[in-house]
Design goal:
The complex is a heterodimer of chains A (about 450) and B (about 260). Chain A is α/β, with parallel strands linked by helices and about 450 residues long. Chain A is about 45% helix and about 10% strand. The longest helix of chain A has 18 residues.
Chain lengths: ~450, ~260
């Protein structure tokens, strides 16, 4: 069924829901590259007028990729909570925006399992940045492993101590640096340069050692392919969180070498380890707009809607952490600071609305039209929006992945400006070891010597 | 040991920016400025246009004839948004190459701006100077060296096919990291033609003075070319085992001779 909107002498016609949603999307280079973006600014607004009038029930009834063709669609529809949907089933997308702006945190938690990715993406397309911030801030998504992530008024940080050759001493030095700034409550997570089981084994032991020696209430992760982590678990290596990059279509997941049964197997294996102390959220996922297009697996659907479908995949495995790596993919998908900022806010909002613990890797590459000022802007907006966690990379310069993210200093900045605390168990630990005062502020003098007990071989 | 000395010592263990110190929640001024400078250099590497004439001149000085072509991406802004255009030749360049194509050759070499003209300005001729004696020794026939503007790696497929080359080596400016604005990538593809995937290529990356040296990169590339021409393939089924040769004393001596 076609959608129409009349503007003066012109009638804008949109052939189907996928076309309508693509044309209603705020401008970004990836949708242009796919040849599905609006042809004019007026067409974008005509599409938004149309989209605002579409009932939520119609979006649910018209899957963008057929049920028979795609296991992500099947997962979305098979896990949809009909009872919770009853509360919002009568609304149009336009009504739904207003419902969200007025809803309480309790209401948002109640309807989260009724919100499909397509519904979340559709409403985000007619929302301004301030709407995305306001509603996301009200969403509560709390997860636990060895600490509690996502409480109101908190912001966690993934300590990302990457090294170009996985050198254990170099990685340890970066970990100590991050801890000395009070970072690492979300996870201490390494992207290894090598995907060999031997490297994985060394790094898992290194992380386990540091966490145990200093008795840090946090969790570790080596971000390698899920099949390699399964192998590590079978060998009895100390795996806390299981990581995987995921996308919003079956074919895009296949390009990552991932299937839903494989994720289920890894989830069950991680649960069986019982290494957690507070809660059993054992998975860590990364996503990012443009991954489906880059895998030639986008089905003519816009990249933001596909990104949101990845959150439906994440949701069924009750992850501790999910983050969009918003500016990593490059300018052919998100061209400049404006597009990256918009995408970061959309991804965070859509994830939270669906009940997923969304953090954001606020980042860019050197061929994007963006710089550290754009990252400051997005970081501050995400802090206001109640973002679950950000990355902590030494000096914001990832020397392994060759991109710029946020730094340990950036986390301090955000805490000071917005009064954000760390995960409470981690905050208490920092105080206990004498790194911070009762308010969570770093004490003068530093704590390098105290932290060095975690790495006796570096002390020599 | 003081806190300062401790971090100085730890920062020698990694190229990561650790032990920076802080001014309140912020970075010390020197660190803000040094990060800014590194980013400026990376940005300039991306946006400086390739001086094709100078690059071609330096290559011809090595005794290698050259041709200059352009991709379908007319300018840098288009190039950055449309990677597909950077993989296709412009109509004029395609016609020109068709006209100039001579006898079939064993190897075509493409020098492409990619995402860092600086890497090409500073490294391409040096790289070819290191490679040429090895190619000469092997007795392979060479097509003219093609200097390509607004080019992605896959542009080499179209060029190699038009020049009737058995294999194509693309020397291309890599996406600059914050501390590596001058890095070349080398991509080798056997039987080049449109539609080749990245899994069908071999890659040697981080070729720059502070990374993999031009001499060592030339040694590795020469090894890969020899394997590709003998075994008739490149890609995931051709593993770079040149390291094994490097540890052999005679190879080490040969390599020393190149320096």
């Amino acid at each position: 069924m076609a959608f129409r909107h009349v503007v003066g002498p012109r009638t804008h016609v949109f052939g189907d829901l996928a076309t309508l949603m693509a044309k209603a999307t705020p401008v970004r280079s990836g949708d242009r590259l796919a040849g599905i973006a609006a042809e004019s600014a007026e067409e974008t607004m005509a599409a938004r007028w149309c989209l605002a009038e579409v009932p939520l029930s119609q979006i649910l009834a018209q899957p963008l990729i057929a049920y028979e063709d795609d296991d992500v669609t099947r997962l979305i529809l098979d896990t949809h909570d009909q009872a919770a949907f009853a509360e919002i089933a009568h609304l149009t997308i336009g009504d739904f925006r207003e419902f969200l702006l007025t809803a309480s945190s309790e209401t948002l938690a109640r309807i989260a399992p009724a919100v499909t990715p397509e519904i979340a993406a559709a409403v985000s397309k007619i929302m301004r940045n301030q709407d995305l911030i306001l509603v996301a801030r009200k969403c509560r998504v709390v997860t636990k492993y060895r600490n509690t992530i996502g409480l109101p008024g908190t912001l966690a940080v993934r300590l990302q101590p990457n090294h170009p050759t996985d050198d254990p001493k170099g990685i340890t030095a970066s970990i100590l640096d991050g801890l000395s700034y009070g970072c690492g409550d979300a996870v201490i997570g390494i992207n290894p340069a090598s995907d060999s089981i031997r490297t994985l084994s060394d790094l898992l032991r290194l992380l386990d050692d540091v966490i145990q020696r200093l008795a840090i209430p946090t969790q570790s992760c080596v971000l390698t392919h899920v099949t390699t982590t399964l192998d590590a678990m079978n060998r009895g290596l100390p795996v806390d969180l299981v990581f995987q990059s995921i996308a919003g279509t079956q074919a895009a997941n296949a390009s990552f070498g991932v299937t839903l049964p494989l994720l289920k197997e890894a989830h069950e294996a991680a649960l069986a380890l019982k290494r957690e102390t507070l809660g059993d959220n054992v998975m860590y996922f990364e996503t990012g707009q443009g991954s489906a297009l880059s895998a030639d697996a986008h089905h003519g659907i816009d990249q933001q809607t596909l990104e949101t479908r990845a959150y439906a995949v994440a949701r069924v495995y009750r992850p501790l952490l999910v983050n969009t790596v918003v500016g990593f993919i490059g300018p052919e998908y998100l061209y400049d600071g404006k597009e990256i900022i918009r995408a970061g806010l959309e991804d965070h909002f859509c994830g939270k609305l669906m009940g997923v613990p969304l953090g954001v890797d606020v980042c860019y590459t050197n061929h994007a039209e963006a710089d550290q000022d754009d990252m400051d802007t997005l970081l501050t907006l995400l802090g206001a929006a109640g973002c679950t966690y950000i990355m902590g990379v030494p000096g914001a310069d990832d020397v392994m992945l060759n991109y710029q993210s946020t730094s340990f200093h950036d986390a301090l900045y955000l805490r000071e400006v917005l009064g954000l605390k760390r995960a409470p168990e981690f905050e208490a630990w920092l105080q206990r070891i004498g790194l911070t005062d009762g308010e969570g502020a770093l004490l003068p003098g530093g704590a390098g010597a105290a932290l060095l007990t975690a790495a006796p071989d570096l002390a020599a | 040991m003081s806190e300062d000395d401790l971090w100085k010592r730890l920062s020698r263990l990694t190229p990561a920016r650790i032990g920076l110190g802080r001014a309140g929640a912020g970075l010390p001024t020197r660190e803000v400025l040094s990060f800014g400078l590194a980013h400026a250099q990376a940005r300039d590497a991306v946006h400086t246009p390739l001086d094709a004439e100078a690059v071609a001149g330096a290559i011809e000085a090595l005794g290698l004839p050259t041709l200059t072509v352009a991709s379908h991406a007319g300018d840098r802004a288009t190039y950055l948004r449309r990677p597909d255009y950077g993989r296709r030749l412009s109509a004029e360049s395609e016609a020109a190459l068709r006209e100039r194509a001579g006898e079939a050759a064993d190897l075509a070499i493409v020098v492409a701006d990619g995402l860092s003209a600086r890497a090409v300005h500073e490294g391409a001729a040096t790289m070819l100077a290191a490679l040429k004696p090895l190619v000469d020794t092997s007795g392979w026939s060479l097509a003219p060296v093609v200097v390509a503007l607004q080019a992605r790696v896959a542009l080499g497929d179209a060029i190699g096919a038009l020049l009737k080359a058995r294999a194509v080596a693309v020397l291309i400016g890599e996406r600059p990291g914050l501390s590596s604005p001058d890095s070349l990538g080398l991509y080798l593809t056997f039987d080049p033609r449109s539609g080749r995937s990245d899994a069908e290529r071999n890659c040697i990356s981080n070729v720059r003075p502070a990374g993999l040296s031009y001499e060592l990169a030339a040694f590795k590339l020469h090894w890969l070319i020899a394997q590709a021409l003998t075994r008739g393939l490149t890609g995931v089924n051709l593993k770079d085992e040149s390291d094994a040769l490097l540890t052999a004393p005679e190879a080490q001596a040969g390599l020393d001779g190149l320096r």
